[in-house]
Prior knowledge:
Layout: H1 3-20, E1 29-33, H2 39-47, E2 52-55, H3 58-64, E3 75-78, H4 87-93, E4 96-100, H5 103-116, E5 120-126, H6 142-150, E6 157-164, H7 176-191, E7 197-203, H8 210-215, E8 220-223, H9 225-228
Parallel strand pairs: 1-2, 1-8, 2-3, 3-4, 4-5, 5-6, 6-7
Helix pairs in contact: 4-5
The structure holds pyridoxal-5'-phosphate.
The site of pyridoxal-5'-phosphate has 13 residues, from β8 and α9.
Amino acid sequence: MxxxxxxxxxxxxxxxxxxxxxxxxxxITLMAVSKVxxxxxxxxxxxxxxxxxxxxxxxxxxxxSSALKDLQEAEWHLIGHLQSxxxxxxxxxxxxxxxxxxxxxxxxxxxxxxxxGKNLQVLIEINVGGEExxxxxxxxxxxxxxxxxxxxxxxxxxxxxxxxxxxxxxxxQGARPYFRTLRELRDRIAARNLxxxxxxxxxxxxxxxxxxxxxxxxxxxxxxxxxxxxxxxPT
Length: 235
Ligand SMILES: *Cc1c(COP(=O)(O)O)cnc(C)c1O
């Protein structure tokens, strides 16, 4: 299946899920998750209209970004865990970091973005399932509150919303309660009208559960496999 056909199908599925939920599909961004995908195939997704891309490792994207420089309208998001020794390079390479999982990282990124002379959009990653194996801040952790309270001190990062990866279940419906938990958390924070915090983005949904995520309010679905095909298993 060509990448452009895959994208077209996903767009149709997004439209149908949005319609079911009484939402406009314009309110949902399709992010192409291009980790492990070579520049030539990323380019095909761009040609098919994708403008937002997600990469999960700084080093990998560092290696391929120069081959993608000419994709002027592309916006690159880091969606994987960011080690603190890579914040400077991340701030240079990406327009957004969707995986901020500690106050310490938020502070480092703010500093790095200032050094790089740019503003970064960031999402706070929440570990909704409380899984040991996943990064993200626990729903009830005081650290979430600390990050929100620190937002007034940040000058070069803008908190724009929340992101999560729910526990995996074979049945995509299994993700629904976790998506709902994240949406409710987002709504509670948004209702506080914190001056320096935006909560417009709810980044939920991947290849196998993005329709459920849209029904639960997703504004950004992060789709890899359904666009580019199966990734080689990590060794
Ligand atoms: C890999 C990845 C995705 C995409 O997963 P698929 O199942 O291939 O669609 C989405 N979000 C994050 C954070 C990822 O690491």
